[in-house]
Amino acid sequence: MVEPALIATPAQRRRALALALFCLVLSAAGLIWRVGDTGAPPPPCPAPALVDGALVCDGRGVPAGARAWLAGERLDVNQATVRELEAIPGVGPVLARAIVEARSARGGFASFDELDLVPGIGDKTLVKLARYLRVAPAG
Predict the structure, then answer these.
(1) How would you write the pLDDT of the chain (139 residues) with one tens digit per residue?
(2) Residue ranges of the domains in the chain?
């Protein structure tokens, strides 16, 4: 027995065309939206904090710690724990421990450039870390 060939009805063709047109318009809208995006990071959050695991900008909650960089803040290298340093992109457990050990041996870092003295941190790594770390003024 030979089965009849599947032939689309005019109504089915119209629905398929409408769906294709909708997808095309939606894709174009997405492209237009992305072109208008400057790619600039959001302005710094004045008081980042964690509330139920979510980063908020109103300061109500526990201190954000290493996640502060998500809100435009930089983590103070003289206060950061190994775990907080590990949360920074490109910093693994070995480098985080090296930073904390060097900080302890030196009694803290007086300037950001002193991080260059930490084993495993060279000029390129120092440039990358500048986005996420800072040295807070004493007092």
Answers:
(1) 556 667 788 898 999 999 999 999 988 888 777 766 666 666 666 666 767 766 677 766 655 555 555 566 788 898 888 888 888 888 889 999 999 999 999 889 998 889 998 998 988 989 888 888 888 865 4
(2) 8-40, 49-134
DSSP string over the chain? -PPPPP---HHHHHHHHHHHHHHHHHHHHHHHHHHH---PPPPPPSB-EEETTEEESB--SEE-GGGGGGGT--EETTT--HHHHHTSTT--HHHHHHHHHHHHHHTS-SSGGGGGGSTT--HHHHHHHTTTEE-PPP-
CATH tag, 49-134: 1.10.150.320
